[in-house]
Amino acid sequence: MKIIDLEPGDARLTADLLPVLLELRPHLTEELFLEIVMEARGQGLRFTAAYDADGVCMGAAGWRIVVNTSMVRSLYVDDLVTAAAARSAGVGHELLAHLERHALAAGCTALTLESGTQRTDAHRFYFRERMAVTAFSFEKPLH
User: Fold this and answer.
1) Residue 45: count of CB within 10 angstroms of its CB
2) Residue 61 host element (H or E)
3) Are 83 and 57 in contact (CB under 8 A)?
4) Which CATH number goes with the domain that contains 59?
5) Would you say the C-alpha torsion 101, 107, 109, 115 has a positive or negative sign?
6) 118 is a domain residue
7) Considering its fold, how many domains does the chain have in total?
8) Which domain holds residue 39?
9) Which residue of 23, 32, 103, 133 is most buried, as measured by CB atoms within 10 A?
10) Which pTM was predicted?
């Protein structure tokens, strides 16, 4: 497995990573995804892709370093998805390990993420990865 941090403008963002990301975020279009990439890059958003030996993207992660008063410095994972065809093959584990190395190098105190309450399979994975539920996330839709 090869894990690559992709830079803005890299054609692999839409050719390789986006099809995997769509499994988690089906509301995205290529146009919307590229708009988000450009705007959120200024907020620190980065993307990482995991490839198999044949060069097929098997996993995707969107992440950023966040500095705030509660955690001081943490690596926040916006998106973490393994392609359905590659699940239970260690892709998610390798992506998290890669992100943890980024977090340690950046002096982060934690690696954090949010997961929808309906994603029970993902929750089991996070618990296996020694992650803990430490907070509730609240949302108020604005129309």
Assistant:
1) 18
2) strand 57-68
3) yes
4) 3.40.630.30
5) negative
6) yes
7) 1
8) 2-128
9) 103
10) 0.91
